[in-house]
Amino acid sequence: MTSVRRVFVAGTIQGASNGLAVEDQSYRQVIPAIVASVFPDAECFDPSLPVLQQLASQETAAAVRAVIEAGPGLLRTSDLVAEAQQLRRTFIDMAEEAAKCDLCIAYLPGLSLSMGTAMEMYVAQQAGVPVVAVTRMTGNLAVVAVSTIIAPDLDSLRDALVIVRDGTG
After folding, report:
1. pTM for the predicted model, two decimal places
2. What is the number of structural domains in the chain?
3. Which residues contact 101 (CB under 8 A, 6 or more apart)?
4. pLDDT band at 23 (very low <50, low <70, confident <90, very high)
5. What is d(CA 154, CA 67) in angstroms, rounded to the nearest whole number?
6. Which residues, in sequence order, are bridge partners of residue 106?
7. Would you say 132 and 149 are in contact if contact means Cβ atoms under 8 Å apart?
8. For helices 48-56 and 82-97, what crossing angle results, to 10°?
9. I need a labelling partner for 24 at 20 to 30 A (CA). Which of 12, 17, 18, 59 fits?
10. Which residues pair with 44 in a beta bridge?
């Protein structure tokens, strides 16, 4: 039996939007409930909280808008204002948390790609942390390359977690 104490919940925050729009985050309540049914003592770590808190700040939102309004072109990230620098650091710090967990669950519904989720999955996989991807993108090489188990939807996540728990996968 595999012991899982801390679970990293990866998933789309902004997706492919080029701005401040945020995807539906309701899966962040559903996944911990499913985890609790298989690993009752596990804590779910949600990396979106500090990112969303910063994006809600008027100063950070203004910094992000300024980058967007500048349009495509050469962007030296070291020249970004302090609020944008802090958001970058938070994003990287949160991705690195995946390596400190016992399990990473990556939620990628439909055909929505997420570069942040891909980074988190990769960090986990490189640290030897099992990655359960919840997606139908079994034809995506990045997903297949770093996943331990791929579940097609949230309804099948519990079955995937039982496989992890029982060490049969």
Report:
1. 0.89
2. 1
3. 6, 7, 8, 45, 124, 129
4. low
5. 35
6. 10, 133
7. yes
8. 170
9. 59
10. 7
Amino acid at 28: R
- Residue 42 sits in a domain of what CATH number? 3.40.50.10350
The answer to whether 31 and 105 have CB atoms below 8 angstroms apart is yes
Structural domain that includes position 111: 6-47+95-166
Is 66 part of a structural domain of the chain? no
Q: Which residues of 6-17 are buried (b: 16+ CB within 10 A; e: fewer)?
A: ebbbbbbbbbee
Q: What is the pLDDT of residue 111?
A: 77
| pLDDT at residue 7 tops 80 | yes
Phi, psi of 98 (to 5 degrees): -60, -30
pLDDT tens-place string over residues 42-65: 999 999 889 888 888 999 989 888
Domain assignment present for residue 72? The answer is no
Q: What is the pLDDT of residue 22?
A: 54
Helix or strand (DSSP H, E) at 151: strand 149-151
Give a yes or no: residue 132 inside a domain: yes
152 is a domain residue: yes
| Residue 125 banded pLDDT, cuts 50, 70, 90 | very high
